[in-house]
Amino acid sequence: MESVNCGEGGEEQTNFAREEAWDSHRRCLSTVFVVLSENRLVSYFTLSPFIVSLKIRENMPEPKKELVMELRGRLERLLGMDIKYSSVPTILLGQFCLQNEYRGRGIGGELLAKVIKPYAVLYAARIGGVGLSLHAKKQVAKRFYLNPKKNPLASGFQAVSKGSTYELFYPFAAEAIAVRRALIERFKSKEFR
Ligand SMILES: CC(C)(COP(=O)(O)OP(=O)(O)OC[C@H]1O[C@@H](n2cnc3c(N)ncnc32)[C@H](O)[C@@H]1OP(=O)(O)O)[C@@H](O)C(=O)NCCC(=O)NCCS
Fold this sequence. Notes:
The chain is an alpha+beta fold. The chain has a single domain (about 45-190), classed as 3-Layer(aba) Sandwich (Aminopeptidase).
């Protein structure tokens, strides 16, 4: 991971890769994935369990309350049930960057939709989880994650909180449930063979 260089604006991701990624992976604080093309490093990302709080606190600013209530309603519709809990489990995309030379070519959006989300769904189907969570600087949230020209999943992303950093959430409950069903079927057919 010493060769990771995410370029301008990606200093946090570069430092994490060089100084912390291996320890974080080894100690089960996150799972680090690397994406290679012909043995060249293209990208790395981390996934780990997370929770999204659905608790409404008295002193919460009104816009935050509205966001949380909207999210709860949306999740209840997706799951087809009332959510009685004050939080829901999700999968966190903790770090994500491209090597500098691969940035700006639309690869980030493709990786998010075709690699990162499917892995997150698979994890959620195994350990529980109803969506993908991430924290992004306001500019990155607006120019990349919430921008349909850059990110094929943009229209599904919800803002859980907005400030200089955005907490974003992409619900995928229905997909995780379908994968879980398939895993159970596979388990059953093996057991009874
Ligand atoms: C964010 C990232 C994964 C997107 O992948 P990509 O293939 O480069 O995406 P695209 O080129 O399709 O679009 C990225 C858009 O976000 C902007 N962007 C990316 N990183 C940015 C940053 N750190 N600060 C501000 N804007 C940023 C780009 O300028 C571009 O917008 P523009 O076309 O209006 O200039 C990649 O740019 C990257 O690794 N950035 C550095 C690390 C980072 O910010 N990771 C996200 C942390 S949650």
